[in-house]
Specification:
With 287 residues, the protein is of the alpha+beta class. The chain has one domain (77-286): Muramoyl-pentapeptide Carboxypeptidase, domain 2. Helix content is 42%, strand content 11%. It is built from nine helices and eight strands. Strands 2, 4, 5, 6, 7 and 8 form a six-stranded mixed sheet that branches. It has a two-stranded antiparallel ribbon with strand order 1-3. Helix 1 (6-41) packs across helix 2 (61-71) and helix 6 (159-178) crosses helix 8. The radius of gyration is 19 Å and the shape is globular.
Length: 287
């Protein structure tokens, strides 16, 4: 806590309490079966693994938190990776675009509209966290993506956004495998923000706006400068990996699944899930 004033300490404590409350509410929203689904989505279980409590059951707040913890079984450490990308790299085929900045220029206003129409109510207090009306998913590093150390956001998304993120990461890895290999994952740098984390961020980045789509749990950032390398067997270059990620996002955006903004100063793709897919997702999770 050295170097923090009283208000900073209060914000730090409140963010931790809000995160805990969101975790508990998310588990209550999904029930036991939802906890299992969330664990699958977050990479805690592989396909084919046995998951107990397949039927929804009534849980108390304490029970739900325990359920989430029990599902986080020991296994592969998805936070482990090489310290840096190996030098050199084999060339990778991808569809080039003339100007990424012009292509991905969906405005904050457009993304904000989509986020507000389907996302969470902005979480400013503990009371707001406990009154969430939407299910939430805790986003953790998994086989499809890596979650960076979050200093100005909390690791949560609405289910539709986490599904989009997982699909982007999985398509990225599948495309690498189909084009000669390479053990890389995309790097997620920002997720759910609260008024408190935005205020903290504005101290470092004056471009951070109060009306951020990140407040609704529908929006996340993926770095295009840094990728997570898990093996040196088939090295790739940063520029080629960026080109492949761009190709995937073009497909996702053209199919109506998301809005994308190319952020030059933050070196990331700012992505918001679109509401048209919400009914499709609900139908799939109810089957």
């Amino acid at each position: 806590m050295k170097g923090l004033d009283y208000k900073d300490v209060r914000r730090f404590k409140m963010c931790g309490l809000v995160a805990l409350a969101i975790t508990a509410v998310g588990a209550l929203s999904w029930g036991a079966a939802g906890c299992a689904q969330s664990a699958m989505a977050s990479g805690l279980f592989a396909e084919g693994d046995s998951v107990e409590a397949a039927e929804p059951v009534a849980l108390t707040a304490d029970d739900s938190v325990v359920s989430v913890l029990l599902l986080d079984r020991p296994g592969r450490d998805f936070n482990a990776h090489l310290g840096e990308m190996p030098p050199g790299g084999r060339r990778l085929r991808y569809k080039p675009v003339p100007s990424v900045g012009r292509l991905f220029n969906d405005s904050n206003y457009l993304q904000l509209q989509a986020a507000a129409s389907m996302g969470l109510e902005p979480v400013a207090t503990l009371r707001d966290a406990w009154r969430l009306r939407r299910p939430v998913v805790k986003v953790r590093s998994c086989g499809d993506y890596f979650v960076d150390t979050l200093t100005h956001s909390l690791p949560f998304l609405v289910p539709e956004a986490e599904t989009l993120l997982r699909d982007i990461g999985r398509q990225f890895r599948d495309s690498l495998a189909a084009r000669g290999g390479g053990d890389y994952r995309i790097k997620v740098t920002s997720l759910l923000r609260t008024p408190m984390t935005i205020a903290k961020l504005r101290r470092r980045n004056r471009n951070a706006v109060d009306s951020s789509a990140h407040q609704y749990g529908t929006t996340f950032d993926i770095s295009y400068m840094k990728f997570i390398c898990d093996s040196k067997k088939v090295p790739r270059t940063q520029s080629d990996l960026k080109g492949l990620l761009t190709e995937i996002l073009v497909d996702m955006r053209d199919s109506g699944r998301c809005y994308v903004k190319y952020e030059r100063k933050q070196s990331c793709f700012h992505i918001t899930v679109r509401g048209e897919n919400r009914s499709d997702y609900v139908e799939k999770t109810e089957i």
